[in-house]
């Protein structure tokens, strides 16, 4: 395990814990903690620890950077994004912005990094992109999108996984947890299947995060006859409809909520999705109908 990251054994304990958390679910923790010379109980305590103020600030800044990057369609690099943040009153430096962009896999068009593959047409053979930015379906339960985001609360971070039906933009499944593990996305998908009963051949499009590439999640898809489709690395537009939903959720609910607890956040997000977003909120892409009304109109 230690060979995967040069100098990991010499790194601070928190860095070793971060490495274990990042690869949790892909490596055997019992063996890895011995190799990295950290305690197993210490790692699990770190996993459940309330995020520090620095962590929360980093996550919020990352979301702001991501929003600016998407707004300018991948044309802005660290320098310009830093300028935009300064103009909105967020004081940070180019080095920090560049580092966070790199961690999120965001590279401006024309840069010398991985973003040169941004418009590459060839899809990965092992994880094909079956929709290629065409967010259209002829009927419900033909194409679903999936993604995760985080919700800050004073108690700690809450993670949210969602599945959206491309046909009507309805949230067909959602799941929330204090842990960002593959169980979160599997629970979300299984909830959606329980509600919608999709036929074999359903396409489920996600990014290439470890939760979605895990053997357990992929096995769950195969069990119901669903096909896995994945975004190309470094290309935020391959799942643009999903990104749009999270942007809307955070603008209309999360940003001003200041939730005290995860339970409070869970309740309010549930109400937003089930009693407002799916049933009442008009969508310009649906001729200003709600997902429920759009499905009824096209049934």
TrEMBL record:
Pfam families: HTH_21, rve, rve_2. Residues 136-299 form the Integrase catalytic domain. One of its GO terms (biological process) is DNA integration. It comes from Lactococcus lactis. GO terms for molecular function: nucleic acid binding. It comes from the Bacteria. InterPro entries: HTH-like_dom, Integrase_cat-core, RNaseH-like_sf, RNaseH_sf, Transpos_IS3, Transposase_IS3/IS150/IS904. Involved in the transposition of the insertion sequence. The lineage of its organism: Bacteria, Bacillati, Bacillota, Bacilli, Lactobacillales. This is (lactis-NIZO22186) IS1069 gene. PROSITE patterns: INTEGRASE.
């Amino acid at each position: 395990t230690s060979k995967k990251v040069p100098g990991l054994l010499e790194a601070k304990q928190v860095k070793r814990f971060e490495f274990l958390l990042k690869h949790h679910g892909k490596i055997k923790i019992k063996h890895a903690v011995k190799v990295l010379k950290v305690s197993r109980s210490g790692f699990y305590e770190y996993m459940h620890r309330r995020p520090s103020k620095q962590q929360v600030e980093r996550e919020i800044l990352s979301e702001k950077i991501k929003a600016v990057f998407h707004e300018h369609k991948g044309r802005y690099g660290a320098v310009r994004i830093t300028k935009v943040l300064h103009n909105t009153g967020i004081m940070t430096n180019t080095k920090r912005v560049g580092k966070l962009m790199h961690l999120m896999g965001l590279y401006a068009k024309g840069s010398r990094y991985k973003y040169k593959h941004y418009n590459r047409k060839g899809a990965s053979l092992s994880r094909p992109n079956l929709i290629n930015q065409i967010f259209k379906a002829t009927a419900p339960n033909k194409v679903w999108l999936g993604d995760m985001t985080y919700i800050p609360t004073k108690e700690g971070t809450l993670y949210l996984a969602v599945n959206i039906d491309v046909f009507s933009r309805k949230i067909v499944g959602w799941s929330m947890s204090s842990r960002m593990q593959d169980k979160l996305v599997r629970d979300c998908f299984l909830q959606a299947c329980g509600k919608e009963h999709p036929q074999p051949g359903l396409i489920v499009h996600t990014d290439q995060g470890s939760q979605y590439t895990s053997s357990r999640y992929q096995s769950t898809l195969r069990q119901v006859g669903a096909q896995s489709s994945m975004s190309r690395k470094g290309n935020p537009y391959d799942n643009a409809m999903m990104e749009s939903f999270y942007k809307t959720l955070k603008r209309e609910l999360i940003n001003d909520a200041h939730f005290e607890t995860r339970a409070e956040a869970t309740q309010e997000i549930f109400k937003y999705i089930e009693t407002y977003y799916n049933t009442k909120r008009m969508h310009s892409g649906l001729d200003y109908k709600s997902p429920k009304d759009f499905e009824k109109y096209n049934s």
